[in-house]
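seq as requested:
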Amino acid sequence: MGNREENLRQLIYLHPEAKLGKGVKIYPFVYVGEEVEIGEASVIYPYTVLLKRTKIGKRVLIGPGALIGFEGFGYEKVGGEYRRIPHEGWVVIEDDCEIGANVTIALAKKGETRIGKGTKIDALVHIGHNVKIGKNCLIVAQVGIGGSAEIGDNVILAGQVGIKDHVKVGDNSIVYAKSALFKSCPKGARYFGIPARPYGKVLRAWAKIYQTTD
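struct tokens:
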């Protein structure tokens, strides 16, 4: 048993500055980088990369192939060429979150990219730099959230939703599948379409377009 445990440890990279809480479970082929903290009873599945400056709370589940703490997509044009903007911030994932397979979460340029307590994120979601996601949200597969967007508490983003950078989504809102949200929406909103508009308004417009007469 001792040899087996040693072999498993050799398949995991832990940076000397990484900090692991009590009862953390890390599967083989995981990379835990510089200034990464993992709270107690969290589970990190195979092929996950926690690159750097990432704080993970308690009882967090991170699915296979997730990539967290990489530099986001930020450039400035200098002399006709694009030059990368340094990302010096952090990723913070609060307690009781679930991060699905192959999710990507970018470092903040400054400050934090933050995922609120109890939020559940499905597979193949991308979260840009400095995004703030509130508590108890559901983010369904293939959602893309642009940099510095703010998602309130108890929000549902259905499959393949796109959120423009700097947009704000109010608490208790739903954005339905395949919608593209280019403007902020208030609390309790129900939005749908490309561009996304209030759900009832879209249904009424469709009723007029598709109505038939004898």
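DSSP finds two helices and 27 strands in the chain.
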